[in-house]
Design a protein that fits this description.
homodimer; 199 residues; 4-stranded mixed β-sheet
């Protein structure tokens, strides 16, 4: 089965659309998707890439665009959501732990719902604990582990792997070394995985 | 007939795709399109928005993405094209003059072909003169007029109108006050013009 690396970062607004769309799209396409949380903030800071801070026109557009696209895909959201999030690293360290333990995808979707539907900032203890509850994980031990040096290092390693794959923003999709950036390239990435070009 | 303002800037790479796709798409959709060249460099500088300078990973991706998308749409191109262009203001002052005289669209397409197919930088005298020739316009008087204060002011006014419409980058499409940014939102803009939402 063809495989896609789905590089996303909790804290990235457009990742919301991909996170909600991927399960159905991937199963329709018979493509296997590897969810890979990384620290997009580190990558963008290193690459001098500031997407929205200090850019009111572009920020206002981003929320409106996500609102229109969510409506198009039938995804529920109350926008704008709190942005930027506070502890981006911690949220993604939890997600990465979850990927190793089999609950990472569900945790990610639950956390984005808390952020984009309930309006609770995704890096906060409140949001992280509630998302873990909804994922049937005990928040206290998970958050403790997620703060340990091993979990910190694991996210840093994944972030370096993202950069090595050419990733400069989130969400990104990598298929056989071919990079696609943005939720609006998800269909192109699936097409690449299936037939080797963009249809 | 529904109407779209197509805000573009000679010098913008992704505008190439829209410039090549619009004639067919617009006539298929029964939508009337007003081509409005503006100075995207002024707008982005004012809004502290630096798309590609100093961002090698994002720049490399941009060319690869345009290449894949051009192939998808059956548009010929030799990439990467010289970037950034030198005299962005002059090129758009010529285009704006042409819009008033009825040859602006054809001039724009000819100039983009010279830039993206023949590899001649679009702000250069060579490219501008050749594009005017191919558009059956006499380069010398047109370039003289395009440098006069009236033409300079006209582009500045259009640029202010773009900002007033919420435009922060190129290409952008405005339909009944609704802004769409990027060639990948052209279909959404056409859909908005026809049915008032994104399908």
């Amino acid at each position: 089965m063809p495989e896609i690396d789905f590089w996303y970062s909790i804290g990235s607004t457009y990742s919301f659309l991909s996170i909600m769309r991927l399960p159905d799209l991937a199963s329709e396409s018979d493509v296997s998707v590897r969810w890979r949380p990384f620290n997009v903030r580190t990558v963008m800071t290193e690459q001098n890439n500031i997407p929205f801070a200090g850019k009111p026109a572009k920020s206002a557009y981003m929320w409106r665009d996500i609102e229109r696209r969510a409506a198009k895909y039938g995804i529920h959201a109350n926008l704008p959501a709190p942005y930027p999030i506070s502890d981006l690293a911690l949220a993604n360290q939890v997600a990465l732990l979850g990927m190793g333990a089999g609950w990472g995808e569900l945790f990610t979707r639950n956390l984005y719902r808390i952020w984009f539907e309930d309006g609770v900032e995704a890096g906060s203890e409140t949001a992280l604990s509630e998302a873990l509850h909804r994922t049937e994980q005990d928040p206290l031990p998970v958050l403790t582990r997620a703060r340990e040096p091993e979990a910190v290092r694991a996210l840093e390693e994944e972030t370096r792997a993202a950069v090595a794959a050419g990733v400069f923003g989130a969400p990104s999709f990598v298929v056989n070394g071919e990079l696609f950036w943005g939720d609006d390239r998800l269909e192109d990435a699936l097409s690449w995985a299936k037939v080797g070009h963009v249809v």
